[in-house]
Amino acid sequence: MERWKDGKMKSNFVKIFTAALILIFSSIVGGCIGDSADSGEKSVAVCFPNTTPSWQRNGDSLKKLLEDENFTVNIQFAGDVNQQKSQVAEAIETKPKCLVVGAIDSAAFAETLEKAKECNIPVIAFDRIIMGTDAVSYYASFDNDAIGEGMGLYIEAALNLKSGAGPFNIELFAGGPSDNNAHIFFSQTMKILEPYFRSGQLVCQSGQKDFNSCAVADWNSANARPRIQKILAQNYADKTLNVVLSPNDDIAGVIIDEIQKAGKPPVLISGLDGDPAAYERIKAGLQTFTINKDPDVLTVKCVRMIKAVVEGTQPDINDVSTYNNGVITVPAYLCTPQIIDKTNVK
Ligand code: BGC
């Protein structure tokens, strides 16, 4: 008792008591009120872009498969990175058992996902890796290296480049610079095609061969239109364009449209995603091939991954070395894409 009369002891007690209160308060306000494991509901939040038709297909397929497994699904689509950041932040507030993100900008989510980590919400990067954070638990995608390489190999074989054929005029398009996949696809294709530029078998009349000159901002196909118009007008008034590298089907549609409007014959042109519109163009002889990223193949794998993280078991992964995001190497399951051309289109 005597000790409590001592003013110094009293003030120490007050200090410790106040510090404890601050700690409890800040963990409630700044941190996480009840982590995801606390709620009984099997809830999954999904945040996807709405920029190309393939994202809607992926979203529909993922939602259906998860609902079949009795998950409650909150799926949101965003048109730009700021909208997606708010959607991801809101989704984290609902404390889902798992958060699945198809990032509009691969490098923009490190800060937003800190809160998911604090709340022990496992995050799965879908189709596109998320850079610069250890808050990502797993990555479910297609083999992006194989996609880029596959486009190059198809063009090499179709033009008989290995046997010395050429010269062929080619123009190049790439995806959106803020998406890591776009860089992988382009660099892998160019690894295959570069020797043929050096040998003169491939000629790029516009001279635009580096990623930045070829990139289509945000993968928005409308952004490809003025560039192909200009390329055709400036370089192909009296020359034949033989080949176009298109990074996906949506962009291929716009390029093909402009080639037709310019009264030019069809060219050898690539695509990606397996859009139904691309299959129609392949049948009509307007698009040469697409690389099908069957949504059902990827979403089945992703649902297994979600179930494993929710149940606390080890998900099926087949790659532990490719996807270093600058902070960690994200364990991944990479599905195999499939080339579709006139020989196997249904
Ligand atoms: C995906 C492509 C898709 C593109 C545009 C890329 O990250 O890998 O399949 O066409 O984004 O949405």
Can you walk me through this structure?
With 346 residues, this protein is an alpha/beta fold. It contains 12 helices and 12 strands. The strands form 3 sheets. Strands 2-1-3-4-5-11 form a 6-stranded parallel β-sheet, sandwiched between helices. The chain has a 4-stranded parallel β-sheet with strand order 7-6-8-9, sandwiched between helices. Helix 3 links the parallel strand 1 (43-49) and strand 2. The longest helix is centred in the N-terminal third of the chain and has 23 residues, at 7-29. The termini are far apart. The model is unreliable at 1-11 and 13-30 (pLDDT under 50).
Outline of the structure:
By secondary structure, the chain is α/β, with parallel strands linked by helices. About 45% of the residues lie in helices and about 15% in strands.
